[in-house]
Amino acid sequence: MEEEYIEEIKQEIIEATSKCRICMSCYADCPLQESTRGYVTQGPTGITKAIYYGILWDTLAGKDAEELRDIVYACTTCGACVARCEKSACGIKVVDVIEAGRKLLVEKMIGPLPDQIKVLESLDQEGNPYDELADKRTKWLESIDKEDAKQVKVLQDSDTVENLLFVGCTSSYDRDLVNIPGSIVKAFNKLKIDYGILNDEKCCGDPALRLGEVGLFEDFSEQNTERFKNVKAKRVINICPHGYHTFKNNYADFPSDLEVMHYTEFLAQQIDVGTLTIKTKLNQKVTYHDPCYLGKRNNSYEAPRKILNNIAGDNFVEMKRNRADSLCCGGGGGRMFVEVEEVDRLSETRVRHALEAGAEIIVTACPWCHIQLSDGIKTSGNENKIIVKDMAHLLADCI
Amino acid sequence: MDVVVTIRQTGILRGNPILTADEKSVDITKLKRHINEWDQYALEEALRIKERKEAGITVVSVGDKKTEDAIYYCLAAGVNEGILIETEPSKYLDSWQIASLLARVVSERPYDLVFSGVQSEDEGCAEVGAILARMLDIPLSSTVIGIKSLIEGGTIEIQNELEEGFYHIRTLELPALITIQTGINQPRYVSSLRLRNTKKKRKITKVSPESLGINMMELDCKKMPKRLFIPEFGSAKLELIDGASSNEKANSLLGRLYDRGVL
């Protein structure tokens, strides 16, 4: 069974990679080319070809395998290459090939990267990648406004709700980011909608899947699907774009009547129908960084911009690279958990893009982008020039 | 070449542990468990030998039924045989008792090398490997941070860790027992699918102390803890022990420990 599964993955990789004409169109769009100047990976084509020859020449052991592992796990899975191949070449789902390569390396006990092993162990033991206690997941409620927290319905086993707010691991545990769920709760309370959070929420499984640990991902997928069915919600509203993407595109048995939304999409809809009104306008220049798992992977570009246009008006400025051309922050694909060698840090480059646009605030809508960009500001020495805010945080100040 | 790896399954401590009713040990039946960290490195070192040479690996562990999970993990990683010496859940066994049980199994099979982790996360005694080597009457080297060479039927050359970055290089005649230090290698990750398939396909050899001819009632526990307790937070006071010499300070500390009934 194990051998058959490995053979299936190999065939999937060989079939997809054989179509590649090595036109190198994807190379220019890959953030790795931007951050490492192409060294080691040679961009998406380099990664997929490395996996291809790794299989063909049977070098999935020893030192060669370790080098292959480092190349395959360098990818941020941002999806820029997929869009480029679709537009200019033969439409290979490059990220799928890279993720299949990771599955192969995990099953062959070569992957993931050493620092990512602890992440998988923590996911298995505590249901989050941060080695935090599972029963402390809703503790963030104690750090937000007491009146807002009181109105949050914490759903027990048989409780049902119309809107299920899926907080996600990073927003639940990162003390610096509790203002994200806190701000969303504030907005939801103002809207007087029926919403709640799970008392036993677990990771969506994204880190396991991106690192190639399919078995562990399937466990999350089955458990979350079962829990969602019991809650009988109309929609699941995600704070993290990675959960949003994973529920929408990777769950095998996801309830067909359960709508998956990102919170920016839900709140933009509320502005559209007039239930959410902006009372205070922002006076500072803001720009928006598109999270890859919201933008490039799911084409959700306009909802965040609708909110920003409403709260910032002319003070909302676009970076030169925006929407599908946006540069990845470097945190996706399991890279949040490892130190990746870069000549130019992606996060610093992105901060530079924001400064060039004249922004004083970089707004984003992903906890991982938030962390990456905050670090990028510090490491590039721009702490007095620009700050990062989540869209929810910004919006909560204006309603 | 036959390599035996002794492993221990330890509880993952988070927050205050729950103690057994007799307050002699932590009740690991209430905890999530994994393979003791040092033993993970010992296992990996054995697997690397298997990848380089013709070698068979046997994993032996002492523990309750749940310890099967740790042995299945080893089988999934590439171990040839797994043996569980099954004991009562949460029963405290000291290093001597554990080594006695392991020695009975190991001595009855062919082996060139025995690997143990330097110590266990829970007890931290670093004794089992040393006692086992003595019981098997084979050379021992502890806190090993590198294997320089291995000649089948001959010798093993190892580096063992000293303080401040220094190390010894020693040559031991085989068979030998070495205790492995963390950081010697990077243990591999065994996937959930691999583990699931292993549990379906492979079998663990389970033996009881009685079947090994050992009566647990008669097997001396040489180091039974008097009582385990969880210190109350907030009630602790810092006291700096003063004295003219180390001896005086040590005596002063001993007196305080006697006064409080710890010793």
Descriptive overview:
The complex is a heterodimer of chains A (399) and B (263). Chain A is an alpha/beta fold and 399 residues long. In chain A, 49% of the residues lie in helices and 8% in strands. Chain A contains 19 helices and eight strands. In chain A, helix 18 (367-379) links the parallel strand 7 (361-364) and strand 8. In chain A, helix 4 runs antiparallel to helix 5 (62-72), helix 4 packs across helix 7 and helix 17 packs across helix 18. With 263 residues, chain B is an alpha/beta fold. Chain B has a single domain (2-212), classed as Rossmann fold. Chain B is built from six helices and eleven strands. Chain B has helices spanning 37-52, 68-77, 95-107, 128-136, 192-201, 246-259; strands spanning 2-7, 9-11, 33-35, 56-63, 81-86, 113-117, 140-150, 155-161, 167-173, 176-180, 205-207. In chain B, the strands form two sheets. Chain B has a nine-stranded mixed beta sheet with strand order 9-8-7-10-6-1-4-5-11, sandwiched between helices. In chain B, strand 8 (155-161) and strand 9 (167-173) form a beta hairpin. In chain B, helix 3 crosses helix 4. The N and C termini of chain B lie far apart (47 Å). The model of chain B has no long low-confidence stretch (mean pLDDT 94). Chain A binds chain B through residues 1-2, 5, 61-62, 106-107, 109-112, 114, 117, 120-121, 124-125, 133, 213-216, 218-219, and chain B through 12, 14-15, 32, 34, 51, 77-78, 186-197.
